[in-house]
Fold each of these.
Amino acid sequence: MPYTSWIPFAAVAVPFLVTVPIVLSSRRPNLRETWTIAAAFATVGLVVSMLPGVLDGNIPELKLFQISPAIPFTLRADPLGLFFALISSSLWLLTSFYSIGYMRGHHEHKQTRYYASFAITMAAAVGLAFSANLLTFLIFFEIMTFATYPLVIHRETPEAIAGGRKYLAYTMVGGLALLGATAWTYSLVGTLDFRPGGILTLDIPAAQHWGLFLLFCLGVGVKAGVMPFHSWLPTAMVAPTPVSALLHAVAVVKAGVFGFLRVIGFVFGTSVLLDSGAWQVLAILASITIVVGSLLALGQDHLKRRLAYSTISHLSYIVLGAALLGTTAWMGAVLHLAAHAIMKITLFFCAGAINVKTHRTLVSEMDGVGRQMPITMGAFALASIGMAGLPPIIGFTSKWHLALGVTEAGYPIFMAFLLISGLLNMAYLFPIVYRAFMIRSPHFTRFDEASWFMVIPLALTGIFSLVLGIVPNVPLQLFRLAATIAASVTGGGG
Amino acid sequence: MVPLLGAFLASVLGWYRAKLAYTVTLASVGFSLAASVTVLVDVLRNGDVQYRLGGWAPPIGIEVAIDPLSAFVAVVVTAVALIVLVPSRQLMANELPAGGGGPYASVVLLLMAGLTGIIITGDLFNLFVFLEIASLAAYALVAVGGGKATVSGFRYLILGTIGGSFYLLGVGLIYFMTGTLNMADAARLLPEVQNTTTIVAAVVLITTGLGLKMALFPLHQWLPDAYAYAPSAVSALIAPIVTKVYAYALIRMYLSVFPPSYITDVLPISTVLVILGMTGIVFGSVMAFAQQDIRRMLAYSSISQLAFIALGIGLANSLALIGAVLHIMNHAVMKACLFLAVGSIRRQAGTASIPQLAGLGRRMPLTMGAFTVGALSMIGVPPSSGFFSKWYLIQGGIDASNWAAVAVILISSLLTAVYFFKVLEKIYFGIPEHSQNEAVNEAPAILVIPTWVFAIAMVALGVVNAFVVSGILDKAIGPNWGI
C-alpha cells in the first residue's frame, strides 16, 4: 500500500542540495570531497532504508505540489524505481572515491564544477527513478541532460566542445520527442501516472498508437543509445573516465533504458503492445543494435571507445528484454540493468586506472600491463567474463533469463542475436585480458598499482559482480526485487 | 481601482522634479505595482471591477474595466518594470553623457502610464490614446541613445504610427457601425453586423495595427535596431514589457470585443496567426543565430518568442491561450534578465559583440550565471518557467490537432538552444584574443541582484505555474473562450 513519506524526496534533495556546500568549499578540496562522499552515503542510506518496506509492498510516496493543473509532482519509490535508485546511488558512492583518485592523479582543472555537476546528475537520476508520472520523469530527464553537459565538455578542448554539442543535439531531440509524446499521452488519456500494466487503452486508433510509440522510442531511445540514435555515446567518451564510468554506463544511458521500462510497462502496458504488435519494431531495432554494436566494438582500438560500443550493444539487451513483454524476459531485462551497470563500471574504472598510471588508452598498448597492475586487470577479467555471459558472474544470470524469455515469447530468432553477440563479447574483451597477462613487455615489470582510491572501488565492483552471480539476493535482494517488478508489469507469476 | 489612477498622477508629478526623477519613478511604479496586486486580489475574490471615469455611464463615458486577465498582466508589467528600474540609473550613467538621465525617468513614467492604461481600459478609443502615449514614450526612450539609436527610434516612430493609425481606422469603422466605443457594448452589438464588409475591414485593420506594434512577423522590421541601439536600461525595459502589452491588447480584442466565432469562421484570422506564428518562430530563431551582436540576437529571439504568443492566440483554444498568456509573463521575466545581464556586460566589458565575450564567464561569474539560467529557460528546460508555457502551448496544439504547430514548438527549442549555446560556449570556453577581458570585473551588486531576482523568479514561476494557471488564468480565459 502506498503511504506518505519524505524519504524519496530526501533521497533526491540530498545530492541536489549538496552542490551548495561543494561550491562554497571550492578552495578546500578535502572538505569538498568530504561533502560529496557524505551526500553519497546519505543517499544510499535513504534509498536502502526503503528496501524492506517496498519488498513487503509498502510503497513510500510524496505528493509535493501540482506541476500543472491535474498533474502533481509526485515521487514514489515503487519496486522498479527503487531498483534503479539502489544501483545508481550505490555506484555513485564508489565512483565518488574513484573520482578523487582519478581527478587528483590527473591534476584535472575545475574540479568544483565537476563535483557539483556530478551531484546534480545523481539527484536527477534518483529523481528519475522515483518519478511517479511522466511529467515528473520528463523534468528530471531534462535536468540530467543539461547537468551532464559540463561533465562531457570538462576538458574544454575543441574535441570536447564538439562532443558536447553532439551530445546536446542528440539528447535534446530525445527530450523534445519525449515532451511531445508526454503531451500527446495526456491529451489521449488525461493522466500521466505510471501504473503497472499501463494507462493507455486499446481503443486508441492504430495510427495514433503507433505514432505515439515511435515518438516515445525516439524520446528515451536517444539516451539509451538504441541505433540509429547511438552515435553521441562514443563521442562523449572525451569526458573524464569516472564520468564515462558512472554516467555513460549507469546513470544517463540507464535513464534511457529505465525510460523504456517505464514506457513499455507503465504507460502502454504489455497487453496493449502485444495486441498492436508495435513491440516488434523495437525488438528488431534492439536486436540490430546488439549485434552491430558488438561488431563496431570489435573494430575499436581506443579502449574507452570499445567499451562505449559495448555499452550500446548491452543497453539493447535490456530494451529487447522489455520489448518481448514476457515475465521472464522482463526479469532478465531488469537484472541486466543491474548486471551491466556493475560490470561496465568495473571495466571503465580499470580503463581509467590504467590511463592514470601508464597514460595508455589504446588496446594495442596494453601488452603486459597485467604484470604491473594485477588487481586492476583481475577485476577487468572478471567483468569481461560476465559481459560474455559466462557463469558464475552476474552477467550470466541476467542473460540466462533473457534467453529463457526469448524462448518463452516464441521467437527463437532473437536467440541467434543473443548468441552471436555473446561470442562477439568474448572476441572484443578477452584479447585485452590475454594481452595484459600473457604477453610480456619490458615496460611493465614490477607491481605498481594506481592510487588506492581507485583500486579499491574497482576491486569491489569486480567482486560484487562475482558475488551477485552466485547469490543474487545478497546484499540488496536485487533478484527478489526484479521478480516483483516483472510480475507486476506483466501480470504473471514469476 | 482608484490607486491605479493615482499612479498616473504621480507620473505627472515626476515630470517636474528632474532631480528626484528616479526616486519618484521608482516610488510611483512601486505604488502602481501595489495597486495592481490589490486589484488582482480583489478581482479574483469579488469578480470584475468597473470604474466610470467622471461618473458617466459606459456607452458615453470612458470606462475602466478590470478582469483577472488585465489585472494579471498589469501585475506582471509593473513588477518587471520596477525591478528593471532599480539599476537603470547606473546603466544610464554609464552609457550616456552626464545629465542624460533626467528625461529618461519622466519618459519612463509616461511609458508606464500608457501601458497600464492599455491594460485596464474598457474603451476602444481610450486604448488608442494610451497606445499613442506609450508608443511616443518608447520612441523617445529609444532615441535617447543618440547616434544610430536616433535613426532606429525614428524608424520605430514611423512604423509604430502606421500601426497606431491602422488600429484607429479599425476602431473608427466599429464606431461607424455600432455607435459605441465601449468594449463590452461593442461586443454586444457586433454580432448583429458581423458579416458586413466594414467590420471585416475593421478586424483586419486592428489585427494588422496591433500586429505591427507587437512585432509579429513579418511586421517586425523596426524591432532589432530599436532594441540593439537603445541604451541598455531602455532595452531592458522595453523588450520585456512593451510588445507584451500589445500582445495583450490583441488578446483583449479577440476575447472581449469580437465575437469568438468570428476569428475562426468568418475570417481565417486564427489560421493566419498560426501560420505567421510558426514562420515567425523559425525566422526569428534563424536570424538570431546569424547575429554577431548579442543585443540583436536577443531582439530576434524576441521576435521568435512573440510569434509563440501569436501562435497561442491563433490556436484558439483555452490551453493554447493559457500558454500564450503564461508566455507573456515568462518571456517578460526571461528577457528582462537577459537584457539586464547584457547591460552589465556592456558596463563592465564595454562590448556587446559575441566574439568579444570570450572568457567573461570567469570574470563575471554571477552575471553570466544569471544569463545561463535565462538561456536555459528560453530553451525550455524544466523546471524553469519557459518549459511550462511551451507545455501548455503544445497541449493546445494537440487539442487543435495542429501537428505542424506542435512540431514547430518542439523544434524551436532546438533552434533556441543552437543560438544560445553559441553564446554560452563563447562565454565559458572561448579563448580571448589579446587578453582583452583580463581586467573585467563582476558588475556591482545593484546590477547583479535585480538580474538574479529575475533568474530565481524564472525557476520559481516554473515551479508554481499551476497556481498561476488554475488560480488566475483559468478564471481569465476559461469562461470567455469556448470555441
Amino acid sequence: MSGTDLLELSGLVAGYGRIEALHGVSLTVRAGEVVCLIGRNGAGKSTLLKTVAGLIRPTGGRVLLRGEDISGRPMPWRTRAGVALVPEGRRVFAPISVHDNLLLGGYGRARKAIAAGLDDIYARFPRLAERRGQPAGTLSGGEQQMLAIGRALMAAPSVILLDEPSLGLAPRIVGEVGDIIAGLAGAEAGVLLVEQDAAVAFRLADRGYLLDRGHIITSGPAATLRNDARVRSAYLGAIPAPGEQHH
Amino acid sequence: MEHIPGYVLIGLSTGTTYAVIGLGIALVYQVSGIINFAQGDFVMLGGLTFAFTAEQGAHPVVAAALALTVTAGCGAALHLAVLAPARDAGHDRLIVLTIGASILIQGSAVLVFGADQHFAAPFGGDRQFQAFGVSISAQYLWCAAAAAAVAAAVWALLSRSQTGRAMRAVAADRETARLMGIAPLRMGLIALLLAAVLAGIGGVVLAPIQPPDATAGVPLGLKGFTAAVLGGLTSPLGAIAGGLVVGVVEAVVTGLVSSGYRDTIVYGLLVAVLLVRPGGLLIAAVRERL
C-alpha cells in the first residue's frame, strides 16, 4: 500500500435539488486499496459515488484527485483524468453490441490506446470476447457486470467507483465478480466500493467507512469494522460471524 | 391494375426524398428526443438556395455547396440558439419551438428569395426514361443515388465511428453516456447538423423536379415525419423504408383513385399508425440491425 491519497473527499455536501443527502463527508482512497462504503438504503452511498463521478454537483466541500481539486470539473474531464463509475444496475447499453459498449468506454481516448485496452479486456474476460457481436442486453447478469467493469476499465481509470456490483447476481457469480474486483486495485489504481452484501464487502475491502444519513459514523480496517455493532446493524444481521466461512 | 408496377416505380422515386427527410427526423429524435418539425424547411432552404443561386448563373456545384452550407448553418443555429438554451424545457415544448423555427425559416426565405418558385435545370440535361409504361424524369435517378449515398454514409457513421457510437449511446442511456465522458448536447448538435445537411442534399436533387418556393417545406416535412413514424421514429433504417412506403402509397392512390385523395390517404396512414402501432410498422424487422 503506497501512502499517497489518490482520492480525497473533504467535507463533501451534496444532494438532489433541495434535498441534501451528504452533510460533510470526508474519506480517502489510496492507490492499491479497495475501500468499502457501508450503510443502509438511503444513507447517501450512491449520491457520494455520483458526486465523485461528476453526475451531481457538490454544494460544499471538495473532491481531490491526487491532491488536485476537481469539484468544479465537468464529467468528460473527470473521465479523462481517471475517474470511472460502474453504475448500480450495470447500465450497459442494451441495444449496442458488447464490442461497441467497450469502445464507448474508451470514448475520447486515442485510437491506439483504445485498441490496447480492448486486447487487455478481452484477455481478461474471454467470455466478453466470445460474445463481442451480441447486443449487451442479451448477456446474463454476471456477464453484464463484467461488461460494465470492462467498459469502465477502457478509460484506464485510477479511481474505480463500484455501485452495488453484486446486486441481483446469482451467488456463484457473486464470487466471480468479487475476484474481478479484487484484481482492480493496483499500483496506480484504487477502488471505492458500495456493496450491500456484507460478506463480499469485507472479503474484498482493506478498509471501510460506515455512512449513516449523510454522515460518516465510523471507519477503519475491514477486520475491525465487521465486528462493529453499528456496522452489523446497518447490514441488518446479514453479516457472517467472524470465522464463519463464506463461499 | 396493369399500371401498378409503374405507379410503384414513381412512388419509389418520390419516396427517396421522404426517406432522406425521415432519416434526419429519426436521427434527431433518437439522439435528442425532439421531433424536428423544421426538417422540411431545411429541404426547402437547400432547394431554394440551390435554384436561386443557379438562376443567378452560378455553377451547379458551387450552388449546391452554398445550399448545403446554408442549411448546415441553419441547423447549427437552430440547435445553438434555440434548442440548447431551452434544453430544460421538456420535449413537448422543444417540439413547439421547432414549429416556431419552421415558420421563421419560411419567413426569412420569403424575405431573401421572394415568394415565387425558383427553377433549376435537371442534372445532365432534361431527359426522361420509360419503364412499366410510365415516363419518369432522369433526375429521380439523382434523387435515388443521393438517398442511397446518404443512407450508406449515415450507416457508416453510426456503426463505424466513435462519434456515431456515442450518438447511439446517448439514445440508449443518456446518463450512462455522460459517465463515458460523452456530452449529450454536443451529440444533439451533431445529429441536427447532420439532419440539416441530409435535408439540404434532398432539397438540391429535388429542386429540378419540384421547383421550390418558401412554402415547399411543410408538406415535405410532414411526409418525412410520416416516414419516420412508420419506421418507429428511432430507427434510421426504418425511416428510409417508411419514406419509400409513403411514396408508393401516394403514387398508387394518385394513379388508381385521384390525386385529390393523395394527402388524405398519406396522413390517414400517419394517424392510423400512431393509433394502432405507435412503435412503427417496420420496427420489429429493423431494430436489431442498428
